[in-house]
Design goal:
This protein has 95 residues and is mainly alpha-helical. Helix content is 23%, strand content 0%. The protein is built from two helices and no strands. The radius of gyration is 22 Å and the shape is flat. The termini are far apart.
């Protein structure tokens, strides 16, 4: 039977204004580091503050979400991706 345990309860802080997509990755990291420094200066009881990120994988050809384990083939999400199919079906020469 499934059971549940809550772990790693924490506080996450996000910038007031969206910075990803507006700023370059380097600019966004600098902005987050400034927020980190401000938290450390002004908030008591802080154990650790770190800048982290999510990684999103997508097809470099069509932008589709990456769904496969392979780093080279995304299940044929587009014609350009299909050229990397490791198991192409045999072509029937009689057709």
């Amino acid at each position: 039977m499934r059971a549940k345990r809550i772990e790693n309860i924490r506080v996450e802080v996000s910038p007031r204004d969206p910075i990803f997509g507006v700023l370059s990755e380097d600019q966004a990291r600098r902005a987050c580091k400034e927020i980190t420094a401000a938290i450390n200066r002004h908030v008591d009881g802080v154990g650790h503050v770190t800048v982290t990120h999510d990684t999103v994988y997508f097809c470099s050809y069509c932008g589709a979400k990456w769904t496969e384990a392979s780093a080279d083939y995304n299940g044929g999400c587009c014609d350009d991706d299909e050229q990397y199919n490791p198991h192409p079906e045999a072509v029937d020469a009689t057709q």
